[in-house]
Inverse folding.
């Protein structure tokens, strides 16, 4: 019934916004957009009959289907990640999981953010702002913000350089 807006997550983690400011009440939004909202889960898809079965047994017919199921991390793709990593998704309780993990982490320890895209970049800066401790951003060989225009990459590099020292 509610959805945390992922674009607000870095600002929430940095302490600039409260969780309520980044949470969307989906039902009124869907109603204003003229969209029928069904809170449930899809359990089967029959593409030839153009039908989706829901977990509660109902079936929905469709002319066009869009599967927007969100990002699901591969917890086993990196050895040790399941046991030691802290995945951003699901978003709904990430801030709580992060807070609990940070309480168990000695102060002054470095935080590592794996992922040099926009989300990882913003998350690294938000954590650096909030925690005032060293944050390491691990990015692919092309560097952080790869695929973005050169001006964006220059600003990103400049920002990372400025924030290097705690």
């Amino acid at each position: 019934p509610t959805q945390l807006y992922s674009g607000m997550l870095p600002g929430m983690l940095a302490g600039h916004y409260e969780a309520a400011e980044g949470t969307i009440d989906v039902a009124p939004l869907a109603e204003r957009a003229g969209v029928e909202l069904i809170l449930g889960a899809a359990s089967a898809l029959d593409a030839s009959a153009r039908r989706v079965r829901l977990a509660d047994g109902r079936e929905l017919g469709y002319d066009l289907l869009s599967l927007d199921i969100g990002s699901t991390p591969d917890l086993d793709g990196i050895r040790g990640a399941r046991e030691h990593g802290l995945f951003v998704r699901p978003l709904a309780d990430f801030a709580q999981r992060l807070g609990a993990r940070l309480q168990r982490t000695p102060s002054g320890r470095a935080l590592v953010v794996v992922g040099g895209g926009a989300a990882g970049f913003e998350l690294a800066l938000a954590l650096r702002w909030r925690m005032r401790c060293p944050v390491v951003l691990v990015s692919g060989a092309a560097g952080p913000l790869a695929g973005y225009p050169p001006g964006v990459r220059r600003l990103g590099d400049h920002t990372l350089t400025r924030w290097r020292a705690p």
